[in-house]
Design a protein that fits this description.
Elements (H helix, E strand, L loop, with lengths): L1 E4 L2 E4 H26 L11 E3 L13 E6 L3 E12 L2 E12 L11 E7 L8 E6 L3 E3 L5 E5 L2 E2 L6 E3 L1 E4 L6 E4 L8 E2 L5 E4 L4 E10 L2 E10 L2
Parallel strand pairs: 13-18
Antiparallel strand pairs: 1-2, 3-4, 4-5, 5-6, 7-8, 8-10, 9-12, 10-11, 13-15, 14-16, 17-18
Keywords: Disulfide bond, Membrane, Signal, Sushi, Transmembrane, Transmembrane helix
Subcellular location: Virion
Protein name: Sushi domain-containing protein
Length: 222
């Protein structure tokens, strides 16, 4: 139904349609605002864990769930999940991620080990092997690290320190030397004597690193 007022034609139907269009946009705008304000805008920070791939998306709304997976080197103690409620993430299942155990690293013969990083034999811990006195490290590496798949390498080896005897003169006899001039094991005692009963030893014997350095002379007894 249309009416003429002040020389202009006005249509009531047109006004009604326009009002419905405006109302529609207002309602749509309100729904959009409510959707945005009801979303959980940030991801909870869970120690040693990340959001499982199948639950990753751009926007989260009320009722959405987040499930977490432990990082490599960590094991899950219960399922970890959060739920979006009233713009906040709340704990749904209170699991946790703990460092993986590596077990005992293994003892070394003629040596010992000590923890140099960490407080237990778990993921990330590092130990160092030390040889006892008279022994030396025969392996290239003296450390082990607890990794996701276990200890990083085999247990190292400590071997006995051996000394090399310098050549002596013909008038000096050395007793206690291994056969075939093999290296002298740590702790061995050598006896030096003069070949002639008419002479006596004069001088000293030094052990420099792993070499017997001899400063001996057989002097004639007067």
């Amino acid at each position: 139904m249309c009416a003429i007022q002040s020389g202009q034609q006005s249509c009531t139907v047109t006004k009604m349609v326009s009002s419905h269009v405006v109302l529609f946009f207002l309602i749509w705008g309100c729904v959009d605002v409510l959707t945005k304000t009801s979303a959980c805008s940030y991801i909870p920070n869970v120690a040693n864990a990340y959001v499982s791939k199948e639950y990753v998306k751009d926007n989260y709304t009320n009722g959405d769930l987040l499930y977490f997976t432990c990082h490599s080197g960590y094991v899950s103690r219960g399922r970890i999940s959060y739920k979006c409620e009233k713009q906040y993430w709340v704990v749904h299942r209170p699991g946790r991620c703990e460092p993986k155990q590596c077990g005992h690293p293994g003892d070394v013969l003629n040596g010992r080990f000590q923890l140099i990083h960490g407080a237990d034999f778990v993921f990330g811990a590092e130990i160092q092997y030390i040889c006892n006195e008279g022994y030396q490290m025969a392996s290239q590496r003296d450390t082990k690290t607890c990794r996701a798949d276990g200890w990083s390498q085999n247990t190292p080896h400590c071997e006995v320190v051996k000394c090399i005897l310098e050549e002596t003169t013909d008038d000096i006899i050395v007793k206690g030397v291994p056969e075939n001039n093999e290296p002298i094991p740590y702790g061995s005692a050598l006896l030096f004597e003069c070949a002639s009963p008419d002479t006596h030893l004069n001088g000293v014997v030094f052990i420099v690193f792993i070499i017997y350095t001899i400063y001996l002379l057989c002097l004639i007894v007067i």
